[in-house]
Amino acid sequence: MSVKKIAAHMKSNPNAKVIFMVGAGISTSCGIPDFRSPGTGLYHNLARLRLPYPEAVFDVDFFQSDPLPFYTLAKELYPGIFKPSKFHYLLKLFQDKNLLRRVYTQNIDTLERQAGVKDDLIIEAHGSFAHCHCIGCGKVYPQQVFKSKLDEEPIKDFVKCDVCDELIKPAIVFFGEDLPDSFSETWLSDSEWLREKPSNSDEHQQQPLVIVAGTSLAVYPFASLPEEIPRKAKRVLCNLETVGDFKTNKRSTDLIVNQLSDSFAEQLVEELGWQEDFQKILTAQTAVTDASKERLLEVVHDLESLSLNRSERDDSNKQDKMPRHTDYHAIDEHKKMVNKSSST
């Protein structure tokens, strides 16, 4: 019924553009694990490895002291291995129909881009593999500078900046780094757009829609976005569980769909009568193969092998490789939070 209501809202407001806010749940059908799902999430898979804590693979201090775990993970998850999901192509369909205002994504997989969504409509809140930068001076490098090292077998050395000799990594936001300026700047503009008073123009009288999908809404500041949506804009949540502000401060106008994002995409397309256009987009793309699932298994296998190699080091060497200035009390608190939360 919620999907029918969403379609009815869009039919009643045919010129109203939509903002999407998405997380790892829209990419799990592609073979990419989310981070926090118990038993299947990336952090669960990494928890049994000999890292000081699972999140260390995305910790800037740990990366600086030992880049190899991230290099190993990046080799398996690098863009091009996985294909977009039906939900990703739903974003493309909204764009084609001139109904897409913006996509705010927590994902680093660049699958929104691969599905054909234009760069200026995507805000990658946590960065992505699309660019590289030096962790020291911030100099920007082409994507291929980092990717070229991943083709080495085994990886012998790491890419360093030609200015300050610090490590180069993809422009993914690690723990200890700030979110890109584009995130806050664009959201300021879009939130003002959502608050615009109706004018005499029919287009401006349309009621906008914000669709949140595939996210646990556990990581801030991204998790605060739904809270900041003005009440005049209808909010939609597509997630296996009701989370975040939809759970703690549910609005009477909220529409909640507790199901997989791909199923939601298919049902919404059907309710809107867009099946033919959607099928054209799907047909033009390469189908997801079992190879993506096999690559996911390789992530854990390769990191386990790496863990065994590292266990052979003596205790003093291990101590040298520990992250610098790490707040372990904060890490313990974070892990408690993770264990209490779940996402699709």
From TrEMBL:
Coiled-coil stretches: none
Residues the entry annotates as binding Zn(2+): C134, C137, C161, C164
Any one GO biological process: heterochromatin formation
Note on how the cofactor is bound: Binds 1 zinc ion per subunit.
Enzyme Commission code: 2.3.1.286
Residue stretches spanning the membrane: none
Amino-acid positions noted as binding NAD(+) in the UniProt annotation, renumbered to this chain: 24-28, 34-36, 106-109, 215-216, 239-241
Protein name: NAD-dependent protein deacetylase
